[in-house]
Amino acid sequence: MTTSLLPRLAALCALMLVPLAGATAPPTPDPAPEGPRPEVAAPAPAPASISDVRGLWVDAFGPGLKTAAQVRQTVEEAARLGVNTLFVQAIRRGDCLCRRSALPVVTDADLEPGFDPLGEITRLAHGRGMRVIAWASVTGASNTQVPNTSPAHVFRVHGPGAGAASWLARRPDGSWRTGSDAWLDPAIPAAADFMVAGLVSLVRNYPVDGVQLDRIRYPDGGVWGYDPKVLARYRAETGARGTPATTDPRWLDWKRGQVTALVRRISLEVKAARPSAWVSAATITYQAPPAPGDLAAFRKTRTYADVLQDWPTWMQEGLIDLNVLMNYKRDAVPAQAAWFDGWNAFAASVRAAPGDLRGAEVAGGTALYLNPPAVTAAQAARTVAAGLGWVGYSYRTPTLDVYGTRQSTPEGLAAVRDLLTAPGGALARVSPWTAQPRTVRGLLGRVVGTPVPGGRVVEALRGGQVVARTLTDGGGNYGFLNLAPGPVEVRVSGQRWAEPVPEVGVIRYPDLLVRDVQPAASGRP
């Protein structure tokens, strides 16, 4: 097995990306009753199912999760709709709609005292045959309009007034607000530890079927990452001098690598806690899509170049099990209907090379709140016809009229349900989503003892041959997912360790002590 690498590893091995075939022929017309039979193409087979998930996002920005009565109604409405999976908001902004996590409980006057939304909705949904994925805003830190009042909340301890202990993503001028929101910076090792711990605590303490990573990126604008600690790390690991320009390709590559490293570590730690847990991501699909299989064009999109989200690599390396595209388009807006179908086709085409079992499932996420029910039904039908799963956003705002306060939520749910469950609709015949994630094993470890633990090349070898490479993150953590079972030797900065990878589960290698004679820019073995 070979593993695609972060940009600074490109010189170490060539990466070949082979898209799945995506073109299909139109149906063949009946032959003419007389004369020679023309040569025509055979009818195209229906696309293979990429995912059978049929889901609904349940957010916490209004009613739906805050009382026992609301949760009962939510599950009942979801069952009537026919979905097989609920993506339930759990981690909001450094806090949780739950009571058994590493994070403080959300501050919300409408939350029933003592009530545990995540625990109750998981219990009820499982009783109705639905899976529950705990949805997390990974880098969310705070909203200044509705702050969490816990003295232990991350924004109070590591917010803008914490000096060198601040974990916030910052612009070159030091500012941190995006509207009323604050974001954590994935390139700050302590912040990454915090984000990982919050997600892992959900899997350890609740019988959820997996986690979904939302806001797993930098904020819009392409001008983030300028916390002094982050800049110091970048210089130490790369040998760069001064402050990088916001458009510096090397700087952008490095920050993009920090996001991918966080996804890798979350997946490894979640799988170490429970190998059967699904790791999903809600991913960005801004503007016009690349053509199917065109990764070079993807690297010119805002998804890759602005918010620094390289989700094709996450899919191909087994870092996520399910990619749910936030394909929020309005068919009524010129070009957006084609954009919608194009992003679905691109995601399906870059799952993995043919025969590679690491390819993630893909579902198209549609914006119920931006469209009337007829458009939602049409988008869902096109998504499912392409072999993808489908997820709607959201339970609370199921139609454009509900979002515009011209219709109640029950009225909107009834209107969209009538079309989605009609004969030929995306939810006309839904079975439970019973697939198991393809990524079920791996290894993880850490290098210690050096002032520059990040950006070091780590090689996995079998029989003396390199089978995968990666880089350490800012805390010295490294890992590989879905290596074949059996003995694997890891080499990093002159240190090595061998241990068998299990059939199922994640093995944790002991810390490797690295003593640099003279600290140098990392990224070199």
Automatic annotation (TrEMBL):
Output the PANTHER family linked to this UniProt entry. Answer: GLYCOSYL HYDROLASE DIGH
Q: Which residue ranges have biased composition labelled Pro residues?
A: 26-35
Q: What is this protein called?
A: Glycosyl hydrolase-like 10 domain-containing protein
TM spans, by residue? none
Q: Which InterPro entries match?
A: Divisome_Glycosyl_Hydrolase (IPR052177), GH (IPR017853), GHL10 (IPR003790)
> Signal peptide position in this chain?
1-23
Q: Which UniProt keywords apply?
A: Signal
Stretches the record annotates as Disordered: 26-46
Which source organism?
Deinococcus aetherius
Task: Give the matching Pfam families.
Answer: GHL10 (PF02638)
